Amino acid sequence: xREFDYSHITDQLLTPEIVNLVSAIHEYRGKQTLYLEAKAxxxxxxxxxxxxxxxxxxxxxxxxxxxxxxxAEIMQQKAEPASRNxxxxxxxxxxxxxxxxxxxxxxxRPSILLQLHRDLYRYNGAGMGGTFKNGDNVIEEVTSDxxxxxxxxxxxxxxxxxxxxHLCEAYxxxxxxxxxxxxxxxxPFILDFLCIHPFNDGNGRMSRLLTLLLLYRAGYIxxxxxxxxxxxxxxxxxxxxxxxxxxxxWQDGKNDYKPFVRYYLGALLSAYxxxxxxxxxxxxxxxxxAQRVAEIVREKVGKITKAEIAAMCPDLNSGTIxxxxxxxxxxxxxxKIGGGRYTAYTYNHEKAAD
Length: 354
Known about the structure:
two-stranded antiparallel ribbon; 17 helices
């Protein structure tokens, strides 16, 4: 069985690019407390938006969908899930809330992983969650001509309980070492978890929930306010590419973690940069709603939707943003593109240059 030892993994990961990513994230984390103190009410709104985005994106990566209206109802617990997709969305909502509210008290043990997986499937039929896989599984990909090809063969069902136990032990040991750097331990752990593929279903979503859990426990809480799952969804092709690169020769213990680590650190840094920008907009003093919206549209390369603007200004309600957009379009400060559900906006740089 594959062995796990993270005690010296930093030796192979300290490339200039990875070191720069870690340093940049450390810098943003140093400002984290100041960000959190910026405007508590607005950050609460950001948290609620991120919960919805994280639940939607993480499930959508796995092909699990529902309408925006139903998603809102399920997230607010105003409706019972009416399909298997909605059951799995509700389960993700609950586990995400558990991690947000209790991460300090959730240790990394196989029994905890089983409990989280059980809760992920609490709205599905009995026996769907809370147990390791009962049969060997493979990770397939579909080629351009529609053929299914085995890309990776995970740990067997028989070996899975021991593999998960050793995986958790290795991480717990490494994270307590004096020289431990969580940012260089969490991505390899997540990759190894995915390569073990311990459950019949839900491995991808569990990996993203565990990412948040381990980041929060290490003091990196940006995922509460900016959806890391959405960042992964938007870069899904790259995610699968680096997963393939870093899982090659994994069974022999000769895989290269660096591509996966670089990707994960890049996603985390992107979340921190987004968080910083949004807090700056929230904290802006002496600017009208229209001025704030104009600044957001100006800084956006290309077009931006009303929903994206709302995410940047969680302290402004929908009506206020709509009035600001109408005012700015009338003044030709911004330009309206499309109509209906496809409406977007872009900054009128030609008028600004006059």
